[in-house]
Each structure stands twice: as structure tokens, then as C-alpha cells.
Amino acid sequence: MKNETLMQYFEWDLPADQLLWKRCKAQAPKLKEAGITKVWLPPAYKGMQGMNDVGYGVYDTYDLGEFDQKGTISTKYGTKEEYLEAVKSLQKNDIEVLSDIVLNHMMGADACEMVMATEVAENNRNQIVQTQKEISAWTIFDFPGRGGKYSDFTWNSSHFNGVDWDENTKRRALFLFEGKRWDGQTDEEKANFDYLMGADLDMENAAVRAQLVKWGMWYEETVGMDGFRLDAVKHINATFYKEWLDKIREKAGKNMFAVAEYWHADLRRLLRYLDSVDNCMSLFDVPLHFNFYNASNQGGTYDMRYLLDNTLVEHRSANAVTFVDNHDTQPGQALCSFVQGWFKPLAYACILFRKEGLPCVFYGDYYGLPSHNILPMPDLKKMIKIREKYAYGEQVDYFDHENIVGWVRTGDEEWKHSGLAVLLSDGPGGSKRMLMGKKFAGTTFKDVTGKCTEIVAIDADGWGEFRVDGGSVSTWVTKEAYDYLETEVV
Ligand code: CA
Question: Does 138 have pLDDT greater than 90?
Fold first, then answer.
């Protein structure tokens, strides 16, 4: 079976040129050729900032770039027609499409209403700061620009738990509505991390749940996506997405893939969430991202033996989507924890060349981040191709030294010339003897990164002595694979 590679097809600071869907449609054959098998597209519905909204400031989930709302018909990425064409083009090229689902909050309401609310503390959402009083909350969503097409459902304060703005006094504070409590089964940071931003949906309200299932069915039917990326799940009652996915999958008649963002570096929280949803989805491996980030910032003093420790891919690999960076960790963003450039090739080797986990390649690493003068990561295309063609077979680890660690993949019959040896060093360079296996006896290996130029001969017992330069990665493949990569992948 071919190795899968997911790509996040956007970064935060893309120009608001409404051309992403068109570019994606045109690029689909190239993405297939590159070895990409799944693509995660950004939220496709109208956000409060209109054509400047990245997609997370959700205004109307039924407006996929079709209605004149928030000053524009098109979203930041294009029109509904262009979106549907991009999806079709990807699917025609055997690439599965994951739609970004943002249901925690809504923003940019059409009108205010007077609501009785209790002010609570930002850092302890169960602590009352001021007893109940009347505020003016932005909670009326009736979408006059859409005029009831697709759904006549409108939103009001009964569907939300709270807001962070009183229009009456023009004051920012956290307000919990009368008769409401924050969702249970959310992250325990700040005592209860139900509230993130905007008008927070009450996921314990039956009418809200029913409407979101109804919308999900409409969305699946309209777009025909293959799966989902679920936003901000630590702020949503865990039972919600379990039920939502069950119903959408049942209606679609297929087991749609889903990966959720539970943004926490503590593996235990991720495992607890997965347990509570019966492992019905994958999660992004946030702990692994932070291991990469920390290693990249320790200038060679990180103990590489522990690089994969306490990560989702180590403890529940079947539910792990591994990644190096994303639109939230890139420079300038709130969660900014961008892995330093020198370490990126080491991190990508860990997600692309190992057996476990579904790797997610970041658009900003693949195409660069021009708004931050960051160039595409050298060799990333080549690394994805290595994953597609050569990263097969058993995996034997050599995580036995504080600076230099490595592993081999012993190849399999199905993939000609497959098998590789990887060495990473965050400190000085050096070498390591690793066992490729007797079937490789007498063959030669070369480093595709070009850093080490010597040829490694595998001895009669199947061992080779591989080398790596300081602060880098070397990836050793068979001579035949090396020649193919040199000529075919530019
Ligand atoms: Ca919430």
C-alpha cells in the first residue's frame, strides 16, 4: 500500500486575491505528481472580515462565496463555484479533500440583543466577577444577504453560552448568559475552556446540535468532500463531534477521515479526548510539534534520544497526524512556535520517513512564506517523493545517543529499491553503524541530501556505517533510488 501524505493547502498570510481555489484547481495534477494523497483546504464559508477573513471568524456557514454578505460575494479564496471545481479537480487526481469545520463560535452578528449575563474571570471561567446585569450582545444572526436560501434557521442568544463584548458599555469582558453554563467535557485550562472567541455556541442545546447536523449534511451533499479537519475541539463538549461525525458519516455512507485540532502540548489531554470520543477521529500531534520546536531552539543541547517521547505518534499512532508547523504556529500568529529553519529538515525526516503517523506538510514550508521572507524549505519536495517511493518496510531505531540518532527502513517487495537509512544530529556530526539487512549485502547507498558525498557499501552481514554532518540530517537510499531522485525530482 502506498504511503499517504496530507498537505495543508494554505498559510495565514496568503494574499486576499480570491484566487486560492483557482490555483488549487490548476495545481492538482502537480500535487498528485509530488506524492500528495490528501489536501486540507481552509474554511470555505463567509467570515466576519469578508474577503480578508482567513476563515475562522465564521459568519455564515451556508455562504461558500455565493451571497453578497460582509462586503463581498467571494471569500478570501474565491467563489462557491471555484471551490467546488477545486475539490473536483483534486479528487480527479486521486487526492482526498478535507474540509475545515469551524463550529465553536460565530462572529460578525447582524444585530445586538439585550441579554442578562454574569461577568466571569478570564482566567477562571467559573469565578463570578460581577453578578447578573443586562448587556447588549452581538447574537442575532439572520443573514439578510442570503434571504433564507438553503436554510431558514436564524440564531439568537438562546443558542449561545456567552460573548466577550458588551455593546452597551463598549466593554470587553467575559459574559455568561442567564440560564446557561459553560459546556462540560472541555479542556480544564482556565477552569473551563469552553469559551474561545466571538459568540460561543451552546453545544449542550438540542436545537443547536440538530442544526449543526443538518448543516453538516447539507455541506457534505453540496461539496462531496472526503473528510474533515475539525477546529478548536478542546473548546467544545467532547460528545458533540462524536455524534456529529457518526451522523454525517452515516448519511454520506462512507467512513470519512477526520483529524481534529486539540491544541495542547500535554499528551495526556489528547489521549483523554480520544478516549472520550472512542477514537473516532485522529488528532494533530501537538506534543511532537513542541518537541521539534524545543529541539530547534536549544542550539544543539537537546537530548535527541527523547525527540519522539510523550507524543501521540508514539502512544497512539493510529490516531496521529504528525506535522512540523501550521497556520497558527507560523511567524506573526498567536500560537507562534515556528520550528527554526535549521531543524526543519530533521523534523520533516521524522514525520515523512517513519512508519507511524499520517504526516501533514505545511503550505508555508512547501511554497515559502513571502510575507515573512521565508523561502520554501530546500529538499522538501524530494523528501515527499522519498516517502512515496522508498520509505517502506520494517523500522529499526537507533535512538541511542544524545546528539546523533537514526533509524532504518528495510524496504519491501512491492516498492522497488525501497529502504533507507536516516541519521539526525543536533550537535556535532558523526557516524553510526546500522543494520539494513542481509538482502542489501554488497549494495551501495548514497545520501540524497548531498551533504555526505561518499558511497556507503553494505557489508556481507547487511551492516553499513552511515555518516551525518553537524546540525543536519542525512538520508541514505539505494544507488538506484538516488539516481532516480537526482534525475526525476527537481
Ligand atoms: Ca465553546
Answer: yes
